[in-house]
Amino acid sequence: MLVSYKWLQDYLDLSNTTPAELADKMSRTGIEVEEVNVPSEGLKKIVVGHVKERRDHENSDHLSVCQVDVGEEEDYQIVCGAPNVDAGQKVIVALPGARIVDNIKIKKSKMRGEVSMGMICSLEELGYSESVVPKAYSDGIYILPETAVPGEEVFPYLAMDDAIIELSITPNRADALSMRGVAHEVGAIYRQTPNFKATELVEDTMDSVENYLSVKVEDTNDTPNYRMRVVKDVTIKESPMWLQTRLMNAGIRPHNNIVDVTNYALLLYGQPLHAFDYDKIGSKEVFIRRGHEGESFTTLDGVERVVGPENIMVTNGQVSMALAGVMGGLDSEVTETTTTVAIEGASFDPTTTRKTSAQFNLRSESSSRFEKGINLGTIEEALAFAAALMAELGEGTVVAGEIVASETIPANPVVTITLAKINGSLGTDLSVSDVNDIIEALGFDYQVEGETYAITIPSRRWDITIEEDIVEEVARIYGYDNLPSTLPSGESLPGALTINQRRVRRLRDVLEGSGLSEAISYALVTETQAQEFVQDKAETVKLQSPMSEDHAVMRRSLISGLLTDVAYNVARKNLNVALYEVGNVFKYVEGQKLPQQDKHLAMALSGLWSEKSWNSTNQLVDFYLLKGIVEKALETIGATDVRFVATQAINEMHPGRTAEIFVGETAIGFVGQVHPSTAKAYDIRETYVCEVNLDTLFAQDLAGEAYHEVGKYPSVSRDIALLVNKSVSSQDLIDVIQANGGKYLTNVALFDVFEGEKLGLDKKSMAYSLTFENSEATLVDEEITAVMEKITSQLVENCQAEIR
C-alpha cells in the first residue's frame, strides 16, 4: 500500500511530524514501513514550459523544433521527438544543467543542425513507471493543465514533492489497505480523530434507478452484498490533475474521469467498485450467478477466458459482463462514447475470489482486497461517494435511489477483557485511565465496570474478535518499546538430549567425518518424485492448495531431494558430490486420521571420492564405499548383527547393485546404485544412495556405547578360500561362518575375490580372514582346528563350497 503523506494530511494534523518520523512510529506500532520515497528527490531544474511555436525539423521526419517560454526573458528553442507536442501546450521542461531520472544530466546540444536548449520531458523521464502513465501520454510527453505557470517548478503540479510511504500490510491488517484505515491508525498513534468530510449526494428525484435496472443475486453466500447506482448524462474526459497525481502516486494508471473515480474510492475506502457502460449492458437486468461450464468471456485486458461453475459472474441475465471481484468485461467497459454509468458496490466470497484470481493469474487491486476482507459498513457510503464524484467530474446527474440486491449488516462484536488480563499478558502496570486513553485513541466504544471492559469493535476492524486481539492493540498503541524487560520467572529445569537425539548427533558426526556434507531439501515434491525410492505402497499426502505442481505432495523418501541437489551441483560443474540429509517423510496409514511422519537418514555419492595425486590415482565412488560408510555409522550407534541382502524390489535402483539393510531380522533401509534410467532422468552421472528409517532403527535393541578391556591373550587368525557359484553372496557365506564359528570368533573379513575362465564361467573364489580371541586364556591350535573343520563342513553342505 502506497500512502501519500499530503493526502493523509487532509484528515489529520501532521504539521509537527515529518514523513520519516511518521514512518518510524508506524513501524514501531505494528505496520511495517518498507520505505519513504519523495519522487522529486534527485531531480532538479525541471520547470513548466509553454510551447509558443512548433515547426517540423527540416532534416528529420519525426523531430519538432519548438519555441518554449520557460519564464525567462527569451524563449528557449528545444528540439523534441514526441509525436504529440504542439503549440499552445503547457509541458515539462528540463533546462540545461537539469538532472532527470537515473541522474542523467541535460546539456545544451545540437540535433541535426538545430540548437536544443534542454528537453521536453515525458513522465517516464521523471521516474514514473510506464505502468502508471496515463494511456493518452504513454507514447509521448505529458501535457500540464492550462493553469500551470511557465518557469515554476513542475513538482508541485505533479505532486512529486509529496512523500510516498510504502506499507507492508499483513493479511490480518487489511483495514490498512485504504487511506481511511491508515488515517485511523495514524490518528490512534498521535491521539487524533480523523476528520472525514461528508459527501453531499444530489439526486434527480424526477428519475428513479428502478427505471434502469433490476438486480438479482443467485447465492448470497457468494455475494453477501450487492448494490448499484446509476449516473446519467456524463461526459467522459481526462480526470483533473489532482486526481491523476493521487492515483499515479499510489501506483495506479489514470484512464478517464469515471474509471479514475472507482479507483480513487478503492484507495480511499478500500472498497472495490466497478463502472459499467449502461447502454452496453444490453438489458435492464443484472444477475449474479456462477459461471456455466465452458462459458466464454473476454476480460478488460482483451483476453478471452473460459469460465465455469467455480467462478462468480456478473451477467445481464444471459451474457457475462464481469469476473466478479477480479476484472470487468471488455464489452461493457466505459469509453469515450459512454453517457450513462451503472456503478457496482459489492462484496464477494474471499475464497472463491482468491481461487479465481489464481486460476486466471489475474492479481488486481480489487481481488487483493476482496481476498483479505473489506469493511462491510462502508459499502453504501463508498458507492454514494463515487456516484457524487462521477456526477461532479463528468457533469452528469445521479439518478435517485440505489438497488440493493443483497445486504449483510456487519456485526459489531463485543469483546470482554479485564485489566488484569492486559497487564498479565504484557507485564505492565497500566491503570484503568491508561487503558481508557488507548481504547479511545483507537476509536472503539467501550464500557468499564471496575476493571472489566466490554469493548465494541467497529466494522472497520474486522480482525479483532478475541481477548488476545485487544491485548495486541493495547501493546501497539502503548508502544512495544515501552513494555518492560523482565527475566523469566519460575523454576528452571536442566535440559538434556533424548537418547535418539544423541544418536542422530553421533550419526551426523560420523558422516561429516567421513567427508559428507549435510543438505536440506524441500519436503514438497512432485507426485512422481513422491512415489520414487519407496519400499512400501501407501497413499501420498497432497496439499489442498499447492503453490505449484512441483511442490504439491509431501515427500515419501529423502533420496529424490538429494538427487535434485546432486543435479544442481553437476549442472554447475561441481561433479564430485557427497551429501547426507536427516529429515521427515510422510504417508497416510490405513486407520489413522492424520498422516504418519517418520524420520529418515539418506546419503548420496557421485563422481570421485578422491582425486589423483603424486602417490595415488583417482578413486570413483562405488557400492562398497557407501556400504562401508553405512556400516561405520550403524556401528557407532550400537547396531549389531547388520546384514546386507541383495534386492531387486526398488524400481529406481540398479537390480544388480542394490542391497536391503537388516538389523537382526528387521529391514531398516537399502543401499545401492541409482538405476541408470533414473539417473538419466535427473541428468546426473553414476550415483550411489542409501536410505535408512531411523524410527525403525532406533526401535531395535541397540547396544549403545560399550568399552572392552584390551585383551591379555593373543588373537589367532585363519584364512579360508572358497570356490562357490556366482549366485552365492558374501553375506550367505559370512552367515554360515558366524553361525558355526563359536564364541571365540570375533571378526570375519573378506580380503579377496577372484573370477576367471580357469575357475569356470559360473564360479568365483572368495577368501576370508577369520579372527579368534579368548579374553581368559590362550587359544591352542587344536581348538581353532576343530572350529575351522566345523565351519568348512557347513560351508560345503549349505553353500556347496569347495575349499581351495
Task: State the helical fraction.
Answer: 25-40%
Number of domains: 6
Q: Based on DSSP secondary structure assignment, what is the total number of beta strands?
A: 43
Q: For the record, what CATH class of the largest domain applies?
A: Alpha Beta
Q: For the residues shown, what is the average pLDDT? A: 93
Q: How many individual helices?
A: 21
Using the coordinates shown, work out and report the CATH topology of the largest domain: Phenylalanyl-tRNA Synthetase, Chain B, domain 3
Q: List low-pLDDT spans.
A: none
| Distance from first to last alpha carbon | 85 Å
The Cα radius of gyration reads 39 Å
CATH architecture field of the largest domain: 3-Layer(bba) Sandwich
| Category by helix and strand content | alpha+beta
The main pleated sheet reads as: 7 strands, antiparallel
Shape: elongated
Summarize this, please?
By secondary structure, the protein is of the alpha+beta class. It has six domains: 2-38 and 163-189, Phenylalanyl-tRNA Synthetase, Chain B, domain 1 (2-Layer Sandwich); 44-158, OB fold (Dihydrolipoamide Acetyltransferase, E2P) (Beta Barrel), CATH 2.40.50; 203-406, Phenylalanyl-trna Synthetase, Chain B, domain 3 (Phenylalanyl-tRNA Synthetase, Chain B, domain 3, 3-Layer(bba) Sandwich); 414-482, Phenylalanyl-tRNA Synthetase, Chain B, domain 1, CATH 3.30.56.10; 499-698, BirA Bifunctional Protein, domain 2; 716-803, Alpha-Beta Plaits (2-Layer Sandwich).
